[in-house]
Amino acid sequence: MNDKAHFHWSEGNKFAIEIIRANFFLNSSVSAALIAFMATTKSVTLAFILSTLSFFIAAILGASLLMMGYYINLRQGNSANAADQTTGKQLWESANGLQMKMTRVLYQCPGVMVLGSCFLVVGFYQLNLRNGPKAIHWTIDLSVGHSTN
C-alpha cells in the first residue's frame, strides 16, 4: 500500500470511531433512561429488564470498540514512525487485522439494539395491558404571575 492509501485507511478508521462513539452514547443513554423509567413508574416487567440488559450490552460493546479503535489508530500512526520498513509493515498489518475483527463486532451492535427495541415494545405493550388504555392529558400553566388581592 502506498502512503495515500495508508492515509485514507486511517482516516476511515477515524470516521468509524465517531460511529462507535455515537453507538456508545445512544445505548448508554437509553439504558439509563429505561432504568429511570422503571424506578419512577415501579412497573418492571421481564421485557423491560431484557431491554435494559440488551442496551447495556450494546453500550459495553461500544465502549470496548471505542478503546480498540483508538488502539488501532495508535498502531497505524506508529507504523509510519517505525525505525525500519519491516517493523512498520508489521504494525500496519496487525492494525488491519484488529480492524477487521472490530468491524465484525461492530456489525453485531445494531442487532443487539434491535433486540433491545423489540423487548422495549413488548414491555410497553404489557404495561398497557396491565394498566388499561388511558389517555394522557398534558396541561400547561401559561400564567406568569397571579395577584393575591
Automatic annotation (TrEMBL):
Keywords: Membrane, Transmembrane, Transmembrane helix. The keyword Transmembrane applies. The chain crosses the membrane at residues 20-39, 46-72, 105-125. This is Uncharacterized protein. It comes from mine drainage metagenome.
